[in-house]
Design brief:
The complex is a heteropentamer, with 1 copy of chain A (about 290 residues), 2 copies of chain B (about 375 residues), 1 copy of chain C (about 300 residues) and 1 copy of chain D (about 400 residues). Helix content of chain A is about 75%, strand content about 0%. With about 290 residues, chain A is mostly helical. Chain A has a domain of about 200 residues: MetI-like fold (Orthogonal Bundle). Chain A is flat, with a radius of gyration of 24 Å. With about 375 residues, chain B is an alpha+beta fold. Chain B has 2 domains: about 230 residues, P-loop containing nucleotide triphosphate hydrolases (Rossmann fold), CATH 3.40.50.300; about 120 residues, OB fold (Dihydrolipoamide Acetyltransferase, E2P) (Beta Barrel). In chain B, the strands form 4 sheets. In chain B, strands 6-7-8-3-9-10 form a 6-stranded mixed β-sheet, with helices on both faces. In chain B, helix 2 crosses helix 3. Helices cover about 50% and strands about 15% of the residues of chain D. Classes of the chains: A mainly alpha (about 290), B alpha+beta (about 375), C mainly alpha (about 300), D alpha/beta (about 400). Chains in contact: A-B, A-C, A-D, B-C, B-E, C-D, C-E. The interface between A and C is large, with 94 and 93 residues. The structure holds adenosine-5'-triphosphate (2 copies) and magnesium ion (2 copies). The site of one magnesium ion has 2 residues of chain E, from helix 1. Chain C: It is found in: Cell membrane.
Chain lengths: ~290, ~375, ~300, ~400, ~375
């Protein structure tokens, strides 16, 4: 008897945690999906209402702005963070004696919350207070850097702040990856006549493929969830030029009292997440079975 | 094509720890030098210094007469094969092999023909499009060899290239390497833990200990005339039996009286070991007898310098081709290598015969051969 | 960070190499400036007086260093009708973050251990399903979560918030530990089995002490996430039990009166201090832990 | 006695002080006050929390909530009535009927107003006006435009403005009132009449808005309203169109109305009403209910109304409070309120959630903001506005 | 104290791949059984099945007569030493060794005395407070042994415990293990790749191949009388020389005529190999000659069944105690183990003598010994 329990102990331990996950993740997703098919406004109601909320969603111009921003932002954010992360990791990999200190400097923005990040960057990027003003005070009277208040460019300020916050983390992941490449392989490449450039491009970076994947996933999930940063930096403005699906959803659910539309947009977001995560999980698990 | 290597008072420290403590060594072009020594004695470090994978702390490394202390590895005209093979995991076998030529901008067709030649030689031509992960240990080993060979450098460095292979494959690859060396005539420096490998491959063996080179000589000399106890004890499996004792002279003949031997055995030094200088009466010495020079009385053809003695057998270890008999003299475990048919029973007294012509004598204090 | 055995490779010397080295350090320095710039602005602003902020450029160093803003942010800034500064809320955050971090880390470790070292049928599926929780946007779960907390009688309490963070932290902690444990030899677990230890015995006495690198990475990650959380804090706590991020928001995001930038910045730094400290102190272990297997690779 | 938990977003300055007054009075009566301030986004964060709290079955006793929002929550059955207090204290008699209607659900008071804000104010810096040779405050949009052009010519930013959706909407609704009059305002922004929304009048309103976009400095985006006020105060800009809470900023800076700054209604001869109120949510427990009633009574007490509004810059919701202690602008506001009530020109503010539900208001804000930040034509704007409103209804 | 082990038709599959394919085996109490076999043949899996670290697919495992198919490892009264030692990295040596007793709630003082005893025996008593990371390979190995020994279980399982050690230490540890077994008399199942280890330690050797046991017998039998080509080829280093050929009779004597041998050598089967049945004329066979049974003509004492032949030497490999001569018969590389003094030059013809009394004969088709 005791032995039977003992044998099932792993399952007994995992099951409740799994059940909790099922409920809090999948239960809530199911709830959201259901709400997206109802006429919920201020508060949830549970009567089926068809696809009306989705029609509403896809007829709302602001949703398209949000989607477009998501693609612009995540594309740039992921690409720049990765490029910067790799670049910095490689720089730091050059036998720098004060590596520890520099690494900490690159990494610390990760520790700060969005309110802090947003507040400071808002100030730095504000044409009337920040860089533009300083440059003009210094005599460059034509210097213009008004992205924050320019609807066509505001989204890029979010990229700037986002990259500032996350590229250090990408750097840390890449650095860890670089360090886990077999030393002998690097020595072999050195003997094979490869200079540092060739060693990285030809040997080390290709070996980091799994790390690339991890970084892309982590950054993508930050990008999709990017709510805090937008709220803190631009509040979605100017206008709703920097709206993202997460802020869109939040605005409709909590400012507009349109839970149904919000739920519909949430479902669309979840679908996007699925499209990215499921292949990742697949490769992750296949890798584990090797 | 092959270059010689000279090391001049070479030293290397990592921080406060000295690892290479002043090595002088001249390797002729075309030689096959094997470095042996206990783990941590600095073999890999020495190889890395030659390759330029570590900077020297002091002293000089010369390859082909040129001082290469400040020359990066790629400009030293060397190739290296690593213990773990260090294949580039993301590149195919083909790309692994040609990588060194690509970086040197060798023309495409020259690359192709070199590749084809060595792939054929190493019998990996059917594997060219695989990734290293899809190869067996022996195949990886050959790819690593191919990568080194194809560049036709002046010097090859091998760091325990066979240690990850199983016994059978190891013997095969050993033969391959020997054949390749004979064919290509390049200078080779080869690190190994395996004594058979060292003995069979080397033109000269360098025995290292603790950052020094103890002896640098051809295999037979190393085995037959070790300069000191360390080298004597290091080469040979099972290792040479060492019997501490004292010299004494009787009737113009020198004998070794094993210390605290109740058995009152005395070994006559009637072979070359008795011809040395300074064999003063009462001198504390170590008598070295290799297991294969001790055998069952009457088991081998009669010869000069034979000495018979009896001792009770403690352990009988048949290994197949031979049987090891463990017995004691003066409380010291000694091993004799006898034929399987020379049956012995543990506990029973056994008549041994020893070829004193092959006995070695060392000073007990300094450990140097006499 | 472990010493690399490739550090000794002889490099080309000469003017070209020196120039490259100079370029390298210039680049590193420039990036240091980029990353430090906002922190510099925050710190220097927090040390200025309001008058100085209004007059001078935000790049200028403070003329007279004053810690008044810090004192005010910590002890007397008004958050609503209470004027005790961030101090009480800081305590709330500690009370909330510490148990939540420990709990989610421990459960994640247990989960990762069971899923990798006691592989049973369906372990992979269970893991995949659990991992998805890491990627769900939190706004989506706000209302159902509120309802659930209400049903559980945990609405508006610190334990409720701990529950929320633990539940949604589980996916990441499990991921970190699973990836770490995959690299731990099964031999050790087998040895412990033969030695007579059971599931928990092996976990607490053998496996957990070994997982320090993974624990460091997980604790840092979880602590940062939980400490910096605003959405859950604002939604699931009441007034005096607000975490420090909510209080900080109340200090910073006011719409009337004179904006006390120095107090805002001091408050922001204070609220971020624990996480900053964690990164500075444990940052080295973080990268080391990452390479020890908390990432794939 | 009793306990009351109050959810609000008055976390600083005069507002926070005003709430502090309420807390003090409440505690003086032996009650326990639990403060739940949630700042940010003009109450958005607070609304999020409120929703979570109500869904969790753990609502605060009183919430800073107003306008049609009150009705929405009431429809969900989430509110508690304080009719017995209201009846006993005769609230009906002292509140403007328009306001009283908003506070009631099915004829019973579920909320108590603390103040009346006028949204259609225009603030100005007399020194700056003098520099550009402008003698009087404009009374029509044409005059305003002329003055603004003169200011532009003098190198002064005519209009201080913060580019946040609600501020854009504030200007918009004042323009609508001025261009279309109170009836048009009511038809378009309160009753959401499609014809009114897509009418030439609306197009004219958008035209005026487009003009005003040109009077704003380039750096307006995302600016908080109080910073815009500061621009007027410091002479960096001439006008600001903003509710009377802006006056709190002037007063807090020690400025004197009529001397250091001028106040005048925006063109249109109406009164755009905004009012803050506390709405009462269903709570359980004797103690909590007692606290709720005590709070209701305190809020409506003339003493509190006076202190609070002196601090906040608005005028009391009770019409029977003497305004002797108040400044000239507040007195003007009070007079205009009574006049407008009589002339049926009192309209609830769209931008400040007094007129329409949050969802429809959201559509207005989206569109106005988009118009303000792009070069959309007025015709398109009117069309799209009508369509968006239709969609949201 | 020692328990026997019985395996009854034991099978194990991982998914679709069968790894153990029906093994029957009876191990007596106190025996020292060594499992050998090529990599991947299922040795570790078999050990894990006995230990309870894998569940059986079908068949039975009995320890001390009790069916333990469903008994978890900790209740099987076994101890195991792993190839990688699997020491608990965060615990001190002391805590590593006592862990098994702690989990079994052995009283503190009994733990202490057991620890003291085995720490002394294994000479690790000065290391008790170190962590495994601070130990050398040999020390780790001994701690792993100590951890297993201290619990005094009925059965010991060893999975390649010495494979990570260097040659010298390996020999030392091998002797330790042998002595311990003789002292404690426990049942041991021991997996190794090393043939010397297998030959010297085992009371019986089980040769595994691809999930089956090919032969299970004492070491001498395995070496002298392998049942088939696989076993014959597997044991011995260098391995047994295999010469494909055909039988033919002449003058009442059986000969083996090597295939395609230009040299026209015929090996007379005048020893036991010629006594078998079914030695029909023309039968295709494999003649097995161990390298040590081929030597320089006249180098050993004369004996029966000697056969002389000549062949040109291809490679000379001195290994120290012996010299290997590689020569060809019928295009087949053969190896002879000669004395170092029997000098030969590559290319020159050499006179070999072979002891046909030790020759083995196998059927060329089935590979079974004749
Ligand atoms: N980068 C380094 N930093 C510090 N010490 C080092 C470094 N590299 C090697 N050592 C030390 O130098 C000594 C010699 O190392 P080396 O690798 O040369 O030994 P080895 O003879 O190759 O041993 P093995 O046979 O085990 O490979 C060792 O004690 C090692 O710990
Ligand atoms: N858990 C597993 N799942 C699937 N296949 C396995 C598993 N464990 C072992 N195998 C396979 O079973 C076969 C036998 O493995 P085993 O480890 O028993 O070999 P071995 O004889 O110990 O080899 P080695 O000498 O290399 O240790 C191998 O082909 C291996 O790939
Ligand atoms: Mg080495
Ligand atoms: Mg194995």
């Amino acid at each position: 008897m005791a032995r039977a329990i003992e044998r099932r102990l792993p399952l007994i331990v995992v099951s409740p945690l799994f059940a909790v996950s099922l409920f809090f993740v999948y239960g809530f997703i199911a709830w959201t999906i259901w709400i997206s098919f109802t006429k919920s406004g201020v508060m949830p109601v549970y009567d089926f209402h068809g696809l009306a909320q989705y029609e509403r969603l896809w007829a709302t111009p602001r949703w398209y702005v949000a989607l477009k921003n998501l693609f612009v932002f995540s594309g740039l954010f992921i690409a720049i963070s990765m490029a910067l992360g790799i670049f910095l990791a490689i720089l730091l990999d050059q036998r720098i004696r004060i590596e520890g200190a520099i690494r900490t400097i690159y990494l610390y923005p990760m520790a700060l919350s969005f309110i802090v990040t947003g507040t400071v960057w808002k100030w730095i990027l504000n044409p009337g207070l920040g860089i533009e003003k300083v440059m003009r005070d210094w005599g460059f009277s034509d210097f213009t850097f008004d992205w924050l208040v320019n609807p066509d460019f505001a989204i890029y300020t979010i990229v700037i702040a986002g990259v500032w916050q996350s590229s250090g983390y990408a750097m840390a992941l890449f650095l860890a990856g670089l360090r886990s490449v077999d030393d002998e392989v690097i020595k072999a490449a050195a003997i094979d006549g490869a200079g540092p450039w060739r060693v990285y491009t030809g040997i080390v970076l290709p070996a980091l493929r799994p790390v690339f994947l991890s970084v892309v996933i982590i950054l993508a999930h930050l990008a999709i969830k990017s709510f805090d940063l937008v709220v803190a930096l631009t509040g979605g403005g100017p206008g709703f030029a920097t709206d993202m699906p997460a802020t869109f959803m939040y605005a409709f659910a909590f400012q507009r009292s349109e839970l149904g539309v919000a739920a519909a947009s949430a479902v669309m977001m979840l679908a996007t997440v699925c499209a990215i995560i499921v292949p990742y999980l697949y490769s992750e698990l296949r890798g584990a079975r090797r | 094509m092959a270059s010689g290597i000279r090391l001049e008072n070479l030293r290397k420290s990592f921080g406060a720890t000295d690892v290479i403590k002043g090595i002088d060594m001249a390797i002729e072009p075309g030689e096959f030098v094997v470095l042996v020594g206990p783990s941590g004695c600095g073999k890999s470090t020495l190889l890395n210094l030659i390759a330029g994978l570590e900077t020297v702390t002091s002293g000089n490394v010369l390859i082909g007469g040129r001082n290469v202390n400040k020359v990066p590895p790629r400009d030293r005209d060397i190739a290296m094969v690593f213990q773990s093979y260090a294949l580039y995991p993301t590149r195919t076998v083909r790309a692994n092999i040609t990588f060194g030529m690509e970086t040197r901008r060798v023309p495409k067709d020259a690359q192709e023909s070199a590749l084809a030649e060595f792939a054929k030689l190493l019998q990996i031509d059917h594997l060219l499009d695989r990734k290293p992960g899809q190869l067996s240990g022996g195949q990886r080993q050959r790819v690593a060899m191919g990568r080194a060979l194809v560049r036709q450098p002046a010097v090859f460095l091998f760091d325990e290239p066979l240690s990850n292979l199983d016994a059978k494959l190891r013997i095969e690859m050993r033969t391959e390497i020997k054949k390749l060396h004979q064919r290509l005539g390049k200078t080779v420096v080869y690190v190994t833990h395996d004594q058979i490998e060292a003995m069979t491959l080397a033109t000269r063996i360098a025995v290292m200990d603790n950052g020094h080179i103890r002896q640098f000589a051809d295999p037979a000399t190393i085995y037959e005339n070790p300069v000191d106890l360390f080298v004597a004890g290091f080469m040979g499996s099972p290792p040479m039996n060492m019997i501490p004792g004292r010299l004494f002279h009787e009737n113009g003949q020198v004998f070794v009286l094993p210390r605290s031997a109740r058995e009152r055995i005395r070994f006559p030094l009637d072979g070359p070991a008795g011809q040395g200088e300074g064999l003063a009466d009462g001198r504390e010495v170590m008598l070295g007898l290799r297991p294969e020079t001790i055998f069952a009385a009457g088991a081998k053809l009669p010869g000069p310098h034979r000495f018979l003695f009896e001792a009770p057998v403690e352990v009988v270890e048949p290994t197949g081709p031979d049987t090891m008999l463990v017995f004691q003299i003066g409380g010291q475990d000694l091993i004799a290598r006898v034929r399987p048919e020379d049956t012995a029973t543990p506990g029973a007294t056994f008549r041994f015969e020893v070829d004193m012509g092959k006995a070695k004598l060392f000073d007990a204090g300094t450990g140097m051969a006499l | 960070m472990r010493a690399r055995r490739t550090d000794g490779i002889v490099r080309p010397s000469g003017p070209g190499a020196i120039a490259l080295r100079v370029l390298l350090f210039t680049l590193l320095g420039l990036f240091c400036l980029y990353y430090l710039f906002p922190l510099f602005v925050m710190v220097s602003t927090s040390l200025k007086s309001l008058a100085e902020i209004r007059e001078g450029s935000f790049l200028a160093l403070p003329r007279a260093i004053s810690f008044e803003a810090w004192a005010k942010a910590w002890g007397s800034a008004c958050v609503g009708v209470r004027c005790d500064g961030l101090q009480p809320y800081f305590v709330n955050s500690v009370m909330m973050a510490v148990p939540a971090v420990l709990l989610s880390t421990l459960l994640g470790a247990l989960n990762g251990y069971a899923l990798t070292k006691w592989r049973f049928r369906g372990a992979d599926i269970i893991f995949a399903l659990m991992l998805f929780g890491a990627f769900i946007p939190f706004q989506v779960v706000l209302l159902p979560m509120a309802r659930t907390l209400g049903e559980l009688g945990l609405a508006g309490t610190v334990p409720g918030l701990i529950l929320v963070h633990t539940v949604y932290g589980l996916a990441f902690t499990t991921l970190f530990f699973r990836n770490f444990f995959i690299g731990v030899s099964d031999g050790i677990v087998n040895a412990a089995k033969v030695d007579g230890a059971g599931f928990f015995g092996i976990f607490f006495r053998i496996v957990l002490p070994m997982s320090l690198p993974a624990i460091v990475v997980t604790v840092i990650w979880q602590f940062t996430q939980i400490w910096n959380d605003f959405l859950f804090g604002v939604s699931f706590t009441v007034g005096d039990s607000n975490p420090v991020t909510v209080a900080l928001n109340n200090v910073v995001n006011t719409s009337t009166g004179v904006k006390e930038y120095n107090v805002d910045m001091a408050a922001a730094i204070i609220a971020g201090l624990p996480t900053l400290l964690v990164y500075v102190v444990a940052g080295a272990y973080f990268v080391r832990g990452l390479s020890a297997g908390a990432i794939k690779g | 006695g009793g306990t009351v938990e109050v959810l609000h977003w008055w976390t600083s300055g005069g507002e926070a002080r005003a709430v502090g007054e309420l807390k003090n009075s409440f505690e003086a009566e032996g009650g326990t006050w639990i403060d739940s301030p949630i700042a940010g986004g003009g109450g958005d964060a607070a609304m999020t929390a409120l929703r979570a709290r109500v869904v969790a079955g753990n609502p605060p006793a009183a919430v800073q909530l107003k306008g049609p929002g009150i009705q929405e929550w009431a429809e969900q059955g989430a509110l508690a009535d304080v009719e017995d207090v209201a009846a006993a204290e005769g609230w009906d008699a002292v509140l403007p009927p328009v306001l009283a209607g908003i506070m009631k659900y099915q004829g019973e008071y579920v909320a108590a107003p603390v103040n009346i804000h006028r949204v259609d104010w225009m603030w100005a810096n007399p020194e700056v006006l003098a520099k550009a040779g402008i003698g009087t405050m404009p009374t029509t949009w044409e005059e305003f435009n002329a003055a603004a052009d003169a200011l532009l010519a003098a190198g002064i930013t005519p209009l201080a403005h913060g580019g946040q959706p609600w501020q854009d909407a504030t200007i918009f609704e004042n323009v609508v009132l001025g261009v279309g009059g109170a009836d048009f305002f009511r038809a378009a922004l309160v009753d959401l009449d499609q014809d009114a929304l897509n009418s030439p009048t609306m197009v004219a309103a958008f035209d005026q808005l487009r003009r005003m976009r040109g009077y704003v400095d380039p750096n307006f985006s995302g600016r908080d309203w109080n910073l815009a006020t500061a621009m007027v105060m410091n002479g960096e800009a001439a006008f600001q169109i903003m509710g009377d809470w802006a006056k709190g900023e002037f007063l807090a800076a020690g400025k004197v109305p009529g001397q250091d700054f001028l106040c005048a209604p925006t063109p249109g001869n109406g009164f755009v009403l905004n009012s803050d109120s506390f709405t009462f949510f269903k709570v359980s427990g004797e103690d909590n209910i007692a606290g709720q009633k005590l709070l209701a009574s305190l809020i409506m007490s003339p003493g509190f109304q006076e202190t609070f509004n002196l601090a906040k810059g608005s005028i009391p919701a009770r019409t029977d409070v003497a305004l002797d202690a108040f400044d000239a602008c507040a007195q003007r506001s009070h007079e205009d309120l009574l006049k407008a009530t009589e002339a049926n020109a009192l309209v609830p503010s769209m931008a400040h959630e007094m007129a329409i539900s949050r969802s429809v208001r959201g559509e207005f804000l989206d569109l106005v903001t988009e118009f303000f930040n792009s070069d959309m034509s007025s015709e398109t704007a009117a069309e799209r506005l009508a369509a968006a409103v239709k969609r949201a209804m």
